[in-house]
Specification:
The chain has 616 residues and is α+β, with helices and mostly antiparallel strands. It folds into five domains: 145 residues, Schlafen, AAA domain (Methyltransferase, Cobalt-precorrin-4 Transmethylase, Domain 2), CATH 3.30.950; 76 residues, no CATH class; 162 residues, Heat Shock Protein 90 (2-Layer Sandwich); 86 residues, Winged helix-like DNA-binding domain superfamily/Winged helix DNA-binding domain (Arc Repressor Mutant, subunit A, Orthogonal Bundle), CATH 1.10.10; 102 residues, Arc Repressor Mutant, subunit A (Orthogonal Bundle), CATH 1.10.10. The protein has 21 helices and 22 strands. A six-stranded mixed sheet has the order 12-11-15-16-18-17. A hairpin with a 4-residue loop joins β17 and β18. About 3% of the residues have low confidence.
Length: 616
């Protein structure tokens, strides 16, 4: 059902523009409108978006988000006709938006819904600009011109087979480990002793699982086959970055210190074995509590997080990660929380996480993990994690899905909500009565250092507008201080909370919008670079090729972690935003760079380094 102009305007005024809503004054249907239409239709997994025409944004004042006023569309019938006509002719394929005229505050407003195009119709692009520039994508609340890397992502939908069903070059049956196949049979027999596939030969079993396919008269491993059943040597050769890293971080924050080594376990094995080892590593390392139930003679030991939650978190990362992205799954164990980070955003919208049904990025891999009962019934894993955490009186997990950088993060607090100490602390903060939802949010902030609308919704299971209203009330009580603006708004401890401002930020381009980030750190100058890098920069000239420019970025960051602003300054004063969009973002996704503060992608002091330097 199409949303009303009133509800869209209310969300805009509460949260500013987002990935799925944009407002425009629209005195005429110009290229800006068409760029947004194109971006909504192109963006994979977005599901489309809404344009609200006849609504104008005002400039922000002070800490408040900018507001929106209804200015109306002067000739709504003509505007509808112009928009429909241009959408039918300006693109390489016609786009048919749904357009409605509504009266809001006495003014006519156009509500335009642009559905996401089918995978085989992408990329859609403005014919006047051509490819790749005309294939706009929706990144956060912005419409961004397409790049060659974007075209790769948009053309993927033309493939009938998913990536895990494709053949692996330079691999044959000798690269599959008979022990991994035997383990599958063993686990499958435990799950279903009469499963018919247990009677088949290994070759027939592997073909049925999609692990091998016949190619040029011989059986060849697929991506799923090698990942599920490959030998360690084959996995290292074909997928060098496909591993699970369990990293034990002292304290509550990631602190980049070249003189200190983190306690890290690198797990390289076929997926079933790797997942089981990772689950065991987390389980054995977490604090344990014990109880003596009435009538029982033996005590019961339990990890602070339910073991089933640990299993679901690890398996979810293994099953849904993007194997196109060369980077490891990271499990970060802090003093107060567990974070599971995997390459690849969720194919489901964040507000739909935990709802029945799932969209499998890797259907062959997912099927095998379900059959050996490592994974929950399809689509129920996140719902089960939430229920188990609440049943243990723990905060519900929070989930962050980001397209740039392309990753998914699940966070599990060890803190029990709400303890007697919490209630005493909350009671000392204000004479105003705090609701249970507001209390949980304040305890969450005390543990994590920051809270935003997404986290508030996850902790309290409320809608967007309710979360926004509650956060504003806590701000008005001086319990929270607002940082950022618009869709990048987040909250840290306010004056009345008495906690330090840890300035944690969770939005991709925050660094670019925080010029104060480097106030205490003088910018790196060209003359401070190694002679070899300076020589290569001189040879590259003013407009180096993409591979040359990225090679320079890697070399600089390998020697000294650098911010986007520092890199832009060194590289002939380039635009930091374009540097992030065109180079740093894709290099993160490709595993060429990593963050110095990985759990807070856009911390104001975020810098880029190389994976080798990250774990010295």
């Amino acid at each position: 059902m199409m949303r009303s102009a009133t509800s869209l305007l209310a969300e805009l005024r509460a949260l500013d523009e987002s990935h799925g809503i944009e407002a425009k004054r629209a005195t005429r249907i110009d290229r800006s409108v068409l760029e947004t239409v194109c971006a909504f239709a192109n963006e994979p997994g977005l599901g489309g978006g809404y344009l609200l025409l006849g609504v104008a944004a005002t400039a922000p004042t002070g800490p408040a988000v900018r507001t929106y006023e209804v200015v109306g569309v002067q000739h709504p019938d003509q505007a509808q006709s112009d928009l429909a006509s241009q959408c039918a002719t300006a693109f390489n394929r016609p786009i048919r938006p749904v357009i409605a005229v509504e009266s809001v505050e006495g003014q006519p407003v156009l509500v335009v819904f642009v559905a996401e195009a089918s995978a085989t119709d992408k990329p859609l692009y403005l014919k006047a600009l051509g490819l790749p520039r005309g294939a706009f994508r929706r990144v956060g609340s912005t419409d961004q011109e397409g790049t060659d890397d974007d075209l790769v992502a948009l053309y993927q939908g033309h493939q009938i087979a998913t990536y895990d069903q494709t053949l692996v070059a330079d691999a044959d049956l000798s690269d599959l480990d008979p022990e991994a196949v035997r383990l599958y049979r063993e686990l499958r027999a435990q799950a279903n002793p009469v499963a018919e596939e247990l009677l088949w030969s290994d070759d027939d079993l592997l073909r049925a699982l999609g692990a091998v396919v016949r190619h040029e008269e011989r059986l060849c491993p697929t991506v799923a086959g090698l990942l599920l059943f490959g030998t360690t040597m084959a996995l290292r050769r074909c997928f060098p970055m496909m591993r699970i890293d369990y990293i034990r971080v002292p304290g509550r924050e990631w602190v980049q210190d070249p003189d200190r080594r983190f306690d890290t376990i690198e797990i390289r094995a076929s997926l079933i074995i790797a997942a089981r080892r990772a689950i065991a590593a987390v389980r054995d390392d977490l604090p344990v509590s014990f109880s003596l139930p009435e009538g029982d003679a033996l005590r019961q030991d339990e990890t602070i997080l339910p073991v089933r939650v640990i299993r679901e978190a690890v398996v979810n990362a293994v099953m849904h990660r993007s194997y196109r992205i060369h980077g490891p799954i990271q499990i970060l164990r802090y003093a107060n929380r567990l974070e599971v980070r995997n390459p690849g955003h969720s194919l489901k919208a964040e507000e739909q996480l935990g709802e029945p049904g799932s969209e499998a990025r890797n259907p062959r891999i997912a099927a095998v993990l379900h059959e050996v009962q490592l994974a929950e019934t399809k689509g129920s894993g996140i719902r089960a994690m939430r229920a188990l955490m609440v049943a243990r009186d723990l905060a519900p997990p929070t989930f962050e899905s980001s397209r740039r950088p392309d990753h998914f993060v699940a966070t599990f607090l060890f803190h029990h909500f709400l303890t007697a100490d919490d209630l005493d602390w909350l009671g000392s903060l204000t004479a105003e009565r705090l609701s249970d939802e507001e209390s949980r949010a304040l305890v969450f902030l005390r543990e994590m250092g920051a809270v935003d609308n997404t986290a508030y919704r996850a902790v309290n299971r409320v809608d967007t507008l309710t979360a926004s209203a509650h956060l504003r009330r806590l701000r008005d009580l001086d319990l929270l201080s607002m940082k950022g603006a618009g869709s990048r708004t987040y909250y840290v401890a306010g004056p009345a909370l008495g906690l330090p401002d840890r300035a944690e930020v969770h939005h991709l381009d925050a660094e670019v919008h925080h010029p104060q980030a480097d106030v205490h750190h003088p910018p790196l100058e060209v003359h401070q670079l190694d002679p070899d890098i300076r020589r290569r920069m001189e040879q590259a000239g003013k407009r180096p090729r993409r591979d040359v420019l990225r090679g320079l970025i890697v070399s600089i960051c390998a020697r000294r972690p650098s911010s986007a602003r520092e890199l832009a300054h060194l590289l002939d004063d380039r635009d930091p935003k374009n540097l992030v969009r065109l180079h740093l973002g894709p290099m993160l996704e490709a595993g060429l760079l990593t963050y110095t503060i990985p759990e807070m992608p856009n911390h104001p002091e975020q810098k880029y380094t190389t994976p080798e330097r990250e774990h010295p």
